[in-house]
Amino acid sequence: MPRHLILHILFLLCLVQRSIAQISETVYNTDSGVSHWIVSDILQDSKGFIWFSTWNGLNRFDGYEFRQVKSYPGDGADICSEVIRQMALDETGNIICITEDGFFKLDARTYRLTSGFGKSKYIFPKNTCPVSFRDREGNLWQVGRYGVTKASSAEHPAQLVEDTEGVQARAFLLDKGSRLWLATKEDECIRLYNRSRRLVGYLGRDGRFHREKTPFGYRAYSMMQARNGDIWIGCKPGALLRLRSRHDGTYEIKELGKEELPCNVIYHIVDDSAGRLWFATFGGGVACIEYPALEEPSFVTFPMKDIADGKVKVRRIYPTHSGNIVCATTNGLILGIVDKKDLRKTVFRRLVRNGNDEGSLAGNALMDVVGDKAGRIFIATENNGIDVTDEKTLFSAKPSFRHYNTANSSLTSDACHALALKDAGRLLIVSTDRVMDFSPEKDETVTYSSTFWNAESHFSEERPLQLSPDSWLFGQEQGAYIATRRSMDVPGYVPPLLFTELAVSGKRSRLDVCNTDTIVIGTDERNFSLSFATLDYTDNSEILYRTRLDSAPWSHASKDRSLTFYDLQPREHILEVQSTDRYGRWVKNTRRLLIVVKPHWYETLWARFLGWLIVVAMITGAVYTVFHVRELHRQRHELLEKYMALLDKSAGSGGNTPAKEIVEELPSDIPAADRKFLDRVKEYIEENISNSDANIDDMASFAATSRSNLNRKLRSLVGITAAQLLIDARMQRAAQLLGGDEGVEKLSVSEVAYRCGYSDSRYFARCFKQKYGVTPSCFSAESEKE
Questions:
Q1: pTM of the prediction?
Q2: CATH number, domain at 581?
Q3: Which of 62, 279, 574, 725 sees the fewest Cβ atoms within 10 Å?
């Protein structure tokens, strides 16, 4: 009995010592953002914020930043001093502060300071010793001489496997008896644990398990159990060992392949559907044993001389559903099309990254490859995320991959050391300092950072091992850790997420945004930023946040705690923010904020309607103008044709067309004054068509008007100037004379030019050709032919 009592006491002392070692202290002072090095009091409000009263006003702390609350000129508060001696919460949650000159109050809802309280209304106990305060998470805050010290005790959901602390867990095996074999690197030990995960002993070179720590003598990098129960161990430095059990529970240890294997550094051992064993060597490609149950099995090696001169460094092998193999190497992916009749005829092909092909491998340095029941194949790259494909596409003439990385997915790291299938399409991705639980279909990632495992996390390259339906084993440089499904998927404490500040350029920041679910943004406030924080005072270093606006897809998870908006559209927007807990698990603390952006007057519905109305009116006016101008041109053209026809008729009758006939042939809608005007112009043209000295001034005088009015009037009626009308009349007369119309004497070109008022026959010929496109001579000749 005393012996058991002593053991129990020693066990409790170990637990106490370990818990004490996990207590961390953080000092907050002016370097941290506190407004004064003298802190007089500490409290926590109903929202969860921590408040410091200092000799320079109030300080609100959200776990990340201190924000000062002070009085300002014109704020309505008659506060003479903000050297706060003590503070307390009243019955409504407001903060009452006592200073040397009286009391003032901070309204917890509006964050406004008010004064005018009598000293007799509130009674504060005197502080005779340094203030200490314990928050709702159990952290202890102690006021010191130059600031505040916070003592917190960190808890890690993952459980350290017994006797693995401080050594790298490098290889795992769960045998058919559900016992755990665990190989560590530095001490070269292989530990055996029973079903309860209690340490049974250490495997020695003699094949026995010893209670005291016994080195195995080799650094095991891979362990697996064949179908016949033999345990195969691949080591580095090189050795391939087979453990065959004896009747007394010990093992016969035999080294194989020493002469046959091109490289005895074994990184991975796996069996395929036919029971063959495949070995990944780090420098000699792959090897295979077709009949591993034999006492002296023979190896089949594959030179691969055309691939890296046969010095292929293979990290992992994945046997596909159809019997082929996929190898992850340090320089690309090697595909093996296995010949089922003759293993030696297996054909190998290497795939590497092609910078000009978007669908090629993301990188050549590959760490792991696994496949699921749906036929998908997942490939882990060293620094470029994961690639996904299927066997049919992979073994086709042009294989392609879909890439997942931090740039295009929810992954939080591109460094992938190892992969393991979890369940329901989810994938466990081991990175350098974290484990990511990733769903490719939903693009969702849960990141288990160092706070989930240990104060420091550096993961090894070993795959996670599923110990049971509800627990997984992970290897680190600091030991082996077990994570249960409950600890990974079921959050415990859900920290509150609050908006902490609304900052508008040129205006004072609003801290009361934490108390509202709606903010109104004025027309001059559209450039603003919102800050938020998850209140976790124990450890918020690994908390991630994601946001979305108006039901858009979630943003990438990051540690950013603010959003900046530029010229947000005038309407109602819904902003959603969600965070993880301190262990990286997404929790149900989504915070929604309705953002109402007021429009400028020109952005209102009525202004837009008026704008559209103006646009429609302008388009209608433009269309009407176009058609109206076309109609005017048509009318002028018709009038000109009729007018020229009258001139032609008058010329044929010797210029004796009666005025009454002219009036009848012109359109009836022309005013009488315009008809009289046109008649005078016509009369002048008829009388002076052969006069080379005829000019526009004489025409204007004859028509009893000015030169400018003559041109304006003719433009409005027939669409041409007086000079052009005279030229057209002369050209029309010349065509009659050259064409030999009936009743018209046919004349020479010179005579025609003279009769039409041209003293220079060459100039006449140029004008005629410009009008009709042919010379007068050609025109006359063509008329004779007709």
A1: 0.75
A2: 2.60.40.10
A3: 574
